[in-house]
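Write out the 3D structure for:
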Amino acid sequence: MIDRFAIAATGNLLFGDGTFSELDNQVALRGFAHAALLSSRTFSSTERFSHAVEALRDRGIGVSVIPVSGEPTVASIDRISKAVADAGCDVVVGIGGGSALDSAKAVAVMALQLAKNHDPISVKRYLEGVGDLTPPAERLGLIAIPTTAGTGSEATKNAVVADIGPQGFKKSLRHDSYIPDLVIIDPLLAKGLPRAVTAASGLDALTQLMEAYTSTKANPFIDSLALDAIGRIGNALPRLLESEASDPSLRSDMAYAAYISGMAIANSGLGYVHGLAGPLGGLHAAAHGIICGSLIAPINRAMVEIHALSGEPAVFKTKMEQIALLWGKRGMEGVLSHVEYITRIADFPRLGTFGFLEDELRSIGSKDVGRNSPVALPAEQVVSILVSLL
């Protein structure tokens, strides 16, 4: 018997090599008059980006180019939202990694609030856990164009916004209407991506897929998509990291898997790694993908060890064995060894290099953050894992 489940809808998707060149047509088809393009300075200096801006302007569509850098913060969202509102934009196009896409989502919401109310309200007031207001459903038009294969933000209904510091946080601006109207995934945009970015974004996507697939909230619809995506990214990522291979099929598999990872977490939830990554990322400016990539191997090994004591839930072992088959491995140990290999060649800096202190890690590790995990880990074991990464 299949238990009851619900699936959150996604927006329109345009996937394939060269699809970025269709941006102007897609904006025009939707009747937008002025686009805010939020992108990194690196990508906005490329020939591809210049051609996209020119094509939009040739159609009579206004363009405001707004550089974004780093993960979105309360201050950056408030600042960019005012600029977009002042420019009179009616669509926000996020081009870049998860940070650029999350920025675009939050700005699409907040810029409209400013344009409608002329009220300098901060995005912080709408964030889960720290805000005092209900997020509005209305927003500007929203198009997401990922250039890395990582967060899957292009397929989710939330934007993660941070406020870094001792009392810092990473919280979501969330509403069902925040899923982008259109997602354009052009795997060619990831060509030439720095190895470190490929590693961090790829391990973030892999973590999301594995946590969603083994989640207590998992359902057969998402499982079928997630398992296939786990197979693709688990085979493609190490090949890219080993040799920085140029095989376009690898980037295509990565881009597809990242999109599915967003669908998966939106519908099946997350586990310990992301439960820890949020508060850790609020304390110090460590990239989300690096935190996830540092935790995925030891957290999964701990779960397998605890699971071995009782054998429950049996479905956890079954799912891990299914993953192993797709990677050409055997059993749960095969999955662990493959994940450990990927994280080893990713060669991330240790958490201590970002300024984390042992007391901070002990405080975060002692909290209950694995609500969707199929295996419960003792707090002292979570603390031990975190401290070992200093």
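Residues 194-388 form a domain with the Dehydroquinate synthase-like, alpha domain fold (CATH 1.20.1090.10).
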